[in-house]
Amino acid sequence: MSRMPQKCLIDTNVPKTANLAFAPDKISSELIGCVLACIEAVEYVVKKGSLVMDAGDEIFDEYRQQLSMKGQPGIGDSFMKWVHDNRWNFPDSDRVTITKCGDSYHEFPDHDGLTHFDISDRKFIAVANAHPEKPPVLQATDSKWWGWKDALADVGITVHFLCPDYAKTKYEEKMGK
Q: Taking the model in full, what pTM does it have?
């Protein structure tokens, strides 16, 4: 990604992918550039304090389940600690209220192309949609999002793929293209 947004949401797979740098010998060759892009994105967001989250801590809780609050050993874990230590300092406008509605949210956009969007990832889209600036969502390795990017764009939500070649290739493999 050439230019980082002023504000953004970060899908959990971004700091998780950044954590792979802790064991470089275990990173597949196709993910090396992706890991570096995720590290750069996480470091940028921490430096600029430009993270947007939900006021009810659903995103925080997901981070907490998949990253270490100790802030180590990986860069994604240090991001988790930063979020923990700073989330109450975010501007009120960047702690967005979303409202549960069954398995989804009232703020999740109504679009035929998003009908099968992952239930567990809907919170990111609901927050982006409810925020007055509709900040982009940073995405690393979840290739399913590649198939939803056009429908999301239709409703004014941008997905910044940190690993676009990887996401596209994996999506096409899964879809049999």
A: 0.94
Distance of CA 167 to CAs 31, 94, 114, 163, Å? 11, 27, 18, 6
The CA-atom distances, in angstroms, between 141 and each of 28, 35, 148, 160 are 13, 10, 14, 11
- Helix boundaries (H) for 19-159: 32-48, 58-66, 75-86, 122-130, 144-154
Residues 35, 23: Cα–Cα separation, whole Å: 11
Token pair recorded at residue 25: 């010998």
Helix, strand, coil: what percent of the chain each, to 5?
A: 55, 10, 35
The residue to which tokens 């988790």 are assigned: 80
pLDDT per residue as tens digits for the range 142-172: 999 999 999 999 999 999 999 999 999 999 9
Phi-psi region of 72 (alpha: psi -120 to 50; beta: other; left: phi over 0): beta
| Number of Cβ atoms within 10 Å of the Cβ of 70 | 11
What is the rounded CA–CA span in Å between residue 68 and residue 83?
11
Residue 65 backbone zone (phi > 0: left; psi -120 to 50: alpha; other: beta): alpha
d(CA 127, CA 122): 9
- DSSP secondary structure letter of residue 46: H
Distance CA 120, CA 145 (A): 12
